[in-house]
Amino acid sequence: MSDITLKYYLVASAMAFASINPALRAMIQDELEVDKKTIVSENFRDRNGKKSGVLILHCVGLDDAWVSKNYGLNNTNGGLGVSAHYYVSQESKKVYQLVSEELSAFHAGPSEWRSLAKENNLQGLNDISIGIEFQSPGYAQIKREAYYPYSFASYSEEQINSGILLSKQIIKKHNITPENVVWHSDVSPLRKTDPGALFDGRRFAQNGIGVWPSADRLEDNQLETSLSTIQAGLKSWGYPHVETTDVFDNATKYVLTAHYMHYLPQEVQWEDFKNQASGSIFDTVQEWSDFPYQKDVLAISLENLNRKNFEKF
Fold first, then answer.
1. How wide is the angle at C-alpha 283 spanned by C-alphas 281 and 286, nearest 5°?
2. What pTM did the predictor assign?
């Protein structure tokens, strides 16, 4: 069998297998089927000439019908007045476009990353970002009347495949840098925990969506684990919500929680926090000296992020 014949045989075989799996078929064909008609949101505005430079990944814990109503309708028509550009459903196994990428969707709220909103004279990132919501049934659903952010729920393989392909297309179209692919909890750490610790950020980074810090220590630099050094590292990477105060304050606790969810989920037993009514896993920690996890692992992750020593896949 010649190389050319073998190539066509392999492609044909892959396509035949993919015919029973829409997500796999999309990955092979490098295209994604997007439903632009079923859920159309009223919640958007003009970007006023601003360009999208940030991709924000979210999750929602309720069903398609809830999303269709609350993300589709504004708050005068019975909805929540919020939206996202895309919704990746686990229930229907579809990707929906709610708002055109050329418009601003209402997905990030009060938010900031690397002072980009401030530089654009904005109160949040909506006008300079694209938002993708992933359905995560059961997320934060324990006692809905309270806020229990650590009821994490898994994502389906099909969702992840679709999300990777969709993100690649968005990044390419808007020329979004890997450092500006973030989570809702990164840009609003004092009030948000999505998409949560079960969202596989490393796998997205493997596919060129975002970055993942190397776990190797850089030998040319002395490792510092003081609180002020950690705060400075968090702020330098992109979290302007924390100040270098050398005080283990609430802002630091919330930002550290966001960092662990995104970049160090393997360091935390998240099951221990599923009934905690707070957005920070460090509520009961009063002093930096009592910090429960390995400070050197945290320091290495921040040092590698800030020095762009990313894992190479």
1. 125
2. 0.88
